[in-house]
Specification:
Elements (H helix, E strand, L loop, with lengths): L1 H31 L6 H6 L6 E7 L8 H17 L14 E13 L4 E11 L1 H4 L3 E5 L11 E5 H7 L9 E4 L2 E10 L4 H6 L5 E5 H7 L7 E7 L5 H9 L6 E4 L6 H9 L1 H5 L9 H129 L17 H22 L5
Helix pairs in contact: 1-11, 11-12
């Protein structure tokens, strides 16, 4: 039963982790789906420097004009030099690039039909910040000598001409001809589709648009520039357009977790449109993508609750296990500490025993030596006594032999009936013979037992 529960627990956690991985992949996809938010990486290229893309959106009642943009452009170079960058030569170009745009409504006529369009007057490097797919022709640029060229989107091209290969064709706006430079396809992602539900779009130079609509002001300014210090570019733009009360957004970091978390903090203010800014559709698409990413982060946090609870329980069990092991280790340390003193006491006791044993052995060995010396002295004395006795016996032996010879020389009576009583034995001889035998036996015993010496 426990094994089944463990398997189920592991399976649920694995499923949760898989879902979290899918959510992160989706967040990465949403962060890169809008090409209008990638200008910093486009402009950076292979450079090792850090670049930032910053956008400023002006309120409807306080739109910017070309003079404000040109004044700001003049301060960019000096500001970058003050930040520690070396000024570039004229042939090397600038460290930064920018664009601006204004939006108004126009009526455009073509060969087949006419249509109300959303005219976007652009300046600077607009199509770097908004790299629409070019179906035919080319883009327009601020450096173009003629300002009578326009770019149509796919829907308007089909509506006016019934095709997309329109380079060199003309459209009429308020009775004036404008040449078609190219046809583009706008973003087709779900965020842009949600953000833009209006009329077909036509792009033309800002100067040409103001010639048709004099009161059209710039509502969006975008710049890609070095950002050596974090938030340097955003702070610079905010300070420069402070009087215009523009809303400044750093596009290159808008999908970071910290930016999304800050969006939750400012959720109430974000919901209230009190800035008077009418955002272009690409900014609205980016704001929608932020909401989708924030929703995914919320879903991830909800999914993390279950593994987090499991982790807390596991950590609690691990802490209990560690505490139990530490207690056991504590007792072992105490025992080892006590054993240390016990071993030291036992070592001292053994040392004392060895010392006393040595003393005893020394005393015993000294006693043994003394006893051995005494035995040797006694044996030596015994040998000397025996030697003295032997010499005395040897001195008495000739006398005994002489007496024996004299007895042999005495004549015997031939009378067999008469027993001649001859005294052939001497009492001294009887005593000497056993003594000699005992002396010989002792000598043999001493020669056979060398340890007794």
């Amino acid at each position: 039963m426990k094994t089944k529960k463990k398997i189920l627990l592991y399976a649920v956690n694995a499923l949760v982790l898989i879902l979290i991985g899918i959510c992160f992949l989706r967040i990465h996809s949403y962060s890169n789906i809008l090409s209008s938010q990638q200008a910093a990486s486009y402009w950076k290229g292979d450079s090792e420097e850090r670049f930032a893309q910053v956008s400023c959106f002006f309120p409807v009642n306080n739109l910017a004009n070309i003079d404000l943009i040109n004044t700001f452009r003049k301060t960019i170079g000096s500001k970058l030099v003050d930040a520690g960058m070396e000024p570039k030569k004229e042939e090397e170009g600038e460290y930064w690039t920018d664009c601006y745009s204004a939006t108004d409504s126009l009526t455009v006529k073509g060969d087949r039909n006419s249509s109300e369009v959303t005219a976007i007057g652009v300046g600077g490097d607009f199509f770097l910040f908004h790299p629409y797919v070019l179906l035919s022709g080319s883009y327009i640029n601020e450096d173009d000598l003629m300002e009578d060229r326009v770019v149509l989107d796919y829907e308007l091209a089909w509506k006016l001409f019934g095709g997309t290969a329109l380079e060199g064709m003309t459209v009429t706006i308020d009775g004036k001809p404008y040449y078609v430079a190219g046809v583009v396809r706008r973003e087709t992602d779900k965020f842009s589709d949600k953000a833009y539900k209006g009329e077909p779009v036509m792009f033309m130079s800002y100067t040409a648009l103001t010639a048709l609509k004099e009161n059209t002001g710039i509502n969006c300014y975008e710049i890609a520039m070095p950002d050596h210090i974090s938030k340097f570019a955003k702070s610079f733009v905010q300070e420069s357009f402070k009087t215009a009360k523009g809303v400044v957004v750093e596009n290159s970091t808008r999908y970071n977790f910290t930016s999304i978390f800050k969006m939750f903090e400012d959720f109430g203010d974000r919901s209230i449109a009190d800035t008077g800014v009418s955002y272009p559709y690409w900014e609205n698409a980016a704001r929608i993508s932020e909401v989708y990413i924030a929703r995914l982060y919320v879903f991830i946090l909800l999914l993390l609750i279950f593994p987090l609870i499991c982790l807390i329980l596991l950590a609690a069990r691990l802490i209990k296990f560690i505490i139990a092991k530490l207690k056991i280790l504590k007792f072992k340390v105490w025992d080892a500490w006590d054993d240390r003193y016990a071993r030291e006491a036992a070592w001292k006791e053994r040392r004392k025993q060895k010392q006393s044993l040595k003393k005893q052995n020394h005393t015993v060995s000294g006693g043994r030596i003394t006893a051995w010396k005494e035995r040797c002295v006694q044996k030596r004395r015994a040998r000397n006594l025996k030697t003295h006795e032997r010499k005395q016996k040897q001195e008495t032996l000739p006398e005994i032999k002489v007496s024996k010879q004299k007895k042999k020389a005495l004549p015997r009576k031939k009378n067999s009936n008469q027993a001649v009583s001859v005294q052939t034995e001497d009492p001294l001889e009887k005593e000497l013979i056993p003594d000699i035998e005992s002396i010989v036996r002792e000598i043999m015993e001493e020669m056979g037992n060398p340890d007794n010496k």
